[in-house]
Every structure is written in structure tokens, then in C-alpha cells.
Write a structure and sequence with these properties.
The chain has 176 residues and is mainly alpha-helical. Helix content is 73%, strand content 0%. It is built from 9 helices and no strands. The relative contact order is 0.08.
């Protein structure tokens, strides 16, 4: 009798796990549809969509693609920065991180460029360096040079932390 009871308990536990998994899938599917609706219909909504994606804990592939389309359509450097970091930290996402990084380099301000330099695992150092130097912004050039002096290869903060260097992820001012 105990063997049968153990089997029924195991089946019950498995049924609860499957029900919870199905509930989670349904939640992500609903959240994904909501985020896609926002991305497809509201200009300049990329940061909001990225936040909603984070709160939901994931989404469907079409959701990521809709957010990327919104960023590109709006030429949103701040959204591109955050989405590129997300793509760099989660390699199986269907996001063209290079396109997003190039958008930040082309359209972003020096604060965004410096944040890219510090936060990407392998930033395009020469492109960022060139753009900051062209800006003639003495403060940004000084910050860039100071950073590159301690990290000439331009490895992002994650590498420096693993290597024992003291640095931190730089938050990007979202008001710009």
C-alpha cells in the first residue's frame, strides 16, 4: 500500500509542477502580447517595454524582435544601450546587438558612449574612442582616457571585476 501511496504522491507532485509551468507559460505569453502591442503602437516606448520585459522575467521571441524594431524605428540610443547590454548578457536572444551598439555610437551622447565602453564585455573601443574625441568634450575625453589607461584593451567591467579590478556597472541617465 505504501508503494502505491508514494506513486500517487509523486504523480501529484508532477501534476502540480506541470500546472505551475503551464501557468507560467500562459503568463509569459500574455505579457509578451501586451509588450508587443506597446512596442508596435507607441513611439519612444522601448525603455518601458524593456522594463516590462524585465518585470515579466522573460518573453517570447517576437517580443524581443518588436522591441528591437521600436528602438530602430525611433533611433533610440538609450533603448539601444539597454537592449544591447541585455543581448550581450543573454547570447541566445534574437537581437542584433551590433546594430544596437552602432546606433548608440551614432546617436548616443558621450555619457552613453562611456557607459558602453565600461559595460560591454568587448566594446568596439576604437569606434567609441573616435566618436568621443570628435566631440571635443574635455571631460568625456578625460574620463575615457582614465578608463582606458587602467584597461587599455577595453574589456568591460565584468572582466575587470573578475580580474580583481574595482569598477562598477555605470547606470545610464534615462532623462536624456
Amino acid at each position: 500500500m505504501t508503494n502505491q501511496a508514494t506513486q500517487f504522491q509523486a504523480m501529484d507532485v508532477e501534476a502540480h509542477k506541470n500546472a505551475a509551468l503551464e501557468k507560467r507559460r500562459e503568463h509569459l505569453k500574455n505579457e509578451s502580447a501586451r509588450i508587443i502591442e506597446i512596442a508596435d503602437n507607441e513611439p519612444n516606448s522601448a525603455l518601458r517595454c524593456i522594463h516590462q520585459l524585465s518585470v515579466a522575467g522573460g518573453a517570447t521571441e517576437p517580443t524581443y524582435l518588436a522591441i528591437e524594431r521600436r528602438i530602430v524605428a525611433d533611433q533610440d540610443a538609450a533603448g539601444a544601450y539597454h537592449f544591447a547590454l541585455l543581448a550581450q548578457n543573454t547570447p541566445d536572444l534574437p537581437i542584433d546587438a551590433r546594430q544596437l551598439i552602432e546606433l548608440v555610437i551614432d546617436k548616443g551622447d558621450n555619457e552613453q558612449l562611456l557607459a558602453l565602453l565600461k559595460n560591454l564585455p568587448l566594446p568596439p573601443v576604437e569606434m567609441i574612442k573616435s566618436k568621443i574625441l570628435m566631440s571635443d568634450d574635455g571631460e568625456a575625453i578625460g574620463l575615457m582616457n582614465a578608463y582606458l589607461q587602467i584597461n587599455p584593451e577595453g574589456y568591460g567591467s565584468q572582466h575587470m571585476l573578475v580580474s580583481g579590478h574595482a569598477d562598477q556597472v555605470v547606470p545610464l541617465n534615462q532623462e536624456k
